[in-house]
Specification:
- The chain is mainly β.
- The chain contains six helices and 37 strands.
- A hairpin with a 3-residue loop joins strand 19 and strand 20 (338-355).
- The longest helix is centred in the N-terminal third of the chain and has 12 residues, at 16-27.
- It is globular.
- It starts with 15 loop residues before the first helix and ends with a strand.
């Protein structure tokens, strides 16, 4: 996985200079959540960036399928297309990863984690993955890392793209997008897209316990996505801009359940709508290089689950999550011997849940509602030292951050962070980066109030998770075509929330007294410019070693690896790309074994998976591509009792005019 993609599909290039120029243009637009950097090297955090062209070349049908290649991440899939897809960063749980869409929190208060199978990759301009704690900047959930999804916006010229994909398990995907300007002065731009998915889903798998081949049934999916974004430059100087963005998702899918306890009639219906209204004013008077933003947003996520044939009785659950939020920010840039970029922010967020399964007190199950209200004040300072003496001191950047969160349900939290960037050469061939700070995650509504059933029960006595984390990394650019990054991280966690099975198999969340999360991340990349095809050959290898160990001091589990976390994970990418002509991409992922019990007595086997993607462009307007997932038809599972489909083949045809 590259830090910055060099791809720009649809623009035919004739020489290596054009390709290198294109790569520099991509680097200049990097935006990391609420901070702006010209390149990832300007961030003290360890960041990976995925471009829209990388997403297209990967054949990803949802975000989880492309994020699996990022160093230090682990995607947990529950089965076929449409099944739940969760992410872990540096051994975290999915609830400890903050997911943003255009800087707005997508994590619902009910569950905390985000299902990546419900996010349309065709709408995405790029994805930015920040590894490591960042609560001092982003607040709750920014425990293991932050994923910021930047959606596409309008263009100066009108473009329409239509594509159709079909493949294994009777899967059909259709996409339509239109973007352009709405007036002659091109002061208003827009982007509109629609996606529809239909998949039968049923597939064969080998039951390891019985040694027989079975059919995984009730895995069908019907889904649709609609997105619309419009921006208006209020004046000719374009220093004031209004924007409106709305995104909608709807799906209806079967829930097959565990292999030993199948739910052949269970059904899930989910809907999500996100609306954002923003105003940006740059070049503010009085304030040096001042810039102000104000954004209002609303999110509603509804989930209906039914199972008329459940053996304990018919189930009809409905969960309605609603969010209202306000973000305001003021930024200033000042120059001198100590140049600095200061950003101050105030945020307000209101989360509300109405649920048929809301348990307000132990033993009492009733339909009810609950809400929480949060305020936060944060400040970030990016200090560039010795601006006029770089030949003597090199480049030194210090980034202190402070955030105070106030919540009506949980204790108030003060989060701190200090980052450092140091390189002794102006060429930036050798860069040292480090961070130290604190992070937290408050228990979700599900953690606290999950209704008592034969399978699970919530714990209203849970405390918030807290961590003290630090990391240090070395980025080396040996040549223009070869670079490497190595990172060591350490996080001491108190009161980690862990769902574990108890007597009779009933799962319950508990605060594990102390956990140590530490590991190593390494990545090597090469890019060779190939003038004879007006393209390039890219290779990338990454490896992560993750020790997530219980340090409670109890003899039974002390020093044991936490369940469902792999010790190691690796990835290899080989990509041959000629922008506007063709691409060939081979992607290999290795996931090490994972314990499934707190005592480390049982585990899931390690596995390799291989994907092949290839495509050609005809006359600059037509695309034909073939995508083969799990090309060797390997049988494996990410979650116990949830087998993954075998080989999947997708053929895609598209036209742009």
């Amino acid at each position: 996985m590259t830090f910055v993609s060099l791809q720009r599909t649809g623009n035919t290039m004739t020489n290596s200079e054009n390709i290198e120029k294109d790569s520099r243009e991509v680097e200049k637009i990097t935006v990391i959540a609420l901070q702006e950097y010209s390149t990832p090297e300007d961030s003290s955090s360890h960041v990976s960036i995925i471009s829209s062209d990388e997403i297209k070349a990967s054949g990803a049908r949802n975000i989880g399928e492309i994020l699996k290649g990022v160093v230090g991440t682990y995607i947990q899939n529950y089965g076929s297309l449409g099944s739940t897809s969760l992410i872990s960063i540096r051994g975290s749980s999915s609830e400890q990863v903050l997911v943003l869409i255009n800087g707005k929190r997508l994590n619902a208060a009910q569950g905390g984690g985000v299902d990546f199978s419900t996010i349309n990759p065709e709408n995405i301009e790029r994805i930015e993955v920040t590894r490591g704690g960042a609560s001092a900047i982003h607040g709750e959930n920014a425990f293991g890392g932050v994923i910021n999804i930047i959606t596409k916006k309008g263009d100066k010229e009108t473009k329409t793209t239509v594509s159709y994909s079909c493949g294994s398990y009777q899967t059909h995907i259709g996409d339509i997008s239109i973007q352009g300007s709405m007036d002659k002065k091109r002061a208003t731009d827009y982007f509109l897209s629609f996606r529809g998915i239909s998949s039968a889903g049923n597939y064969l798998f080998v039951d390891q316990k019985r040694g027989t081949t079975e059919e995984r049934v009730n895995t069908g999916l019907l889904a649709g996505d609609l997105a619309f974004k419009i921006g208006w430059d209020v004046n000719r100087e374009k220093d004031r801009r209004l924007s409106f963005d709305i995104q909608m998702h709807q799906d209806d899918k079967g829930i097959p359940g565990m292999v030993d306890f199948p739910t052949v009639s269970a059904n899930m219906n989910e809907s999500r709508i996100i609306a954002m209204l923003g105003y940006e004013h740059s070049e503010l008077p009085v304030i040096p290089k001042g810039k102000a933003n104000i954004e209002f947003y609303a999110i509603r996520q509804i989930r209906n689950f039914t199972d008329e044939e459940f053996y304990l009785g018919s189930i009809n659950d409905k969960h309605d999550n609603r969010t209202l939020g306000l973000d305001t920010a003021l930024q200033s840039i000042m120059s001198g011997w100590i140049s600095q970029k200061i950003r101050l922010q105030y945020s307000y967020r209101w989360d509300w849940l109405r649920s048929t399964g809301l348990e307000k007190s132990p033993g009492i199950l009733e339909e009810g509602e609950i809400f929480r209200e949060a305020h936060s004040i944060s400040g970030l300072d990016e200090l560039h030292l010795f601006q006029y003496s770089r030949k003597i001191f090199g480049r030194i950047v210090i980034t202190p951050a402070l955030r105070y969160d106030i919540n009506n349900l949980y204790e108030n939290v003060l989060s701190k962070q200090l980052g450092l960037i140091l390189n002794t050469e102006r060429s930036r061939r050798l860069i040292i980066k480090g961070n130290a700070g604190t992070s937290y995650r408050a228990p979700s509504f599900d953690d606290l109030f999950w209704p008592a059933t034969a399978f699970a029960i919530g714990n209203p006595d849970l405390k918030s998770e807290r961590s003290v984390n630090w990391d240090v990394g070395l980025l080396i650019k040996f040549y223009r075509w070869l670079s490497t990054e190595m990172v060591y991280y350490n996080s001491e966690v108190k009161d980690l929330i862990q769902w574990n099975p108890g007597p009779g198999g009933q799962w319950r969340p508990e605060n594990v007294d102390k956990v140590l999360m530490q590991g190593i991340e390494a990545e090597i990349k090469t890019i060779w410019i190939l003038q004879f095809i007006s393209g390039y050959l890219e290779t990338a290898y990454n490896y992560a070693l993750m020790y997530i160990t219980d340090k409670t001091g109890e003899s039974a589990t002390d020093g044991k690896q936490l369940p469902r976390r792999p010790f190691e994970k690796a990835g290899f990418l080989l990509s041959l790309h000629s922008p506007g002509s063709f691409f060939i991409r081979w992607d290999t992922q290795f996931v090490g074994f994972r314990y499934i019990t707190a005592h480390n007595l049982k585990y899931l086997d390690s596995y390799f998976s291989h994907d092949l993607n290839m495509g050609i462009y005809l006359y600059d307007n037509y695309e034909i591509s073939l995508h083969i997932k799990n090309i060797l038809d390997k049988e494996y599972i990410d979650i116990r009792e949830y087998p993954i489909p075998g080989r999947e083949i997708m053929l895609k045809m598209g036209v742009r005019f």
